[in-house]
Amino acid sequence: MSVSVLEAKLGEVYAGKTRKLTWARALALSGGPFGTPGWPEKNLHTDLEAAKAAGLSTVVVSGTQWEGYLVGLLVEVFGIAWFNGGQLDIKIPRSVKIDETVQPKARVEARGQEGDRVRIALSVWCENQDGEQVLVGTASCTVPAPGKK
Question: What one-character-per-residue DSSP string does 107-130 give?
Fold first, then answer.
């Protein structure tokens, strides 16, 4: 990121890479172990009949896939501190279909001192190719205060 999260102004937005959700990725994530008899497993993420049985018009990609893209952005923003003090709370308000795109984003909302560390709070979301939010939530992380390790 071009600006350290400690130097970022409130309201500053970080954006991750836009990614297309493909059949190959959906099958790899939701199809079960490769090489098992009957692979891929039949579920609403891999099979049209299973999706329709669940009340959907088509196969939808597992939300954990784009949640992972958001976590990747948070690791870019916070570095190794994310693994030691990161917290994430999300909801998935809408499905994403094969061949749609998602882009993770995070906006700096607050910053507060906690001893020799600084807690930074973000609003987070992923949006699809139409700008619709397909994941929403909050994240926060404590990072060393300037001059501290």
Answer: EEEEEEEETTEEEEEEEEEEEETT
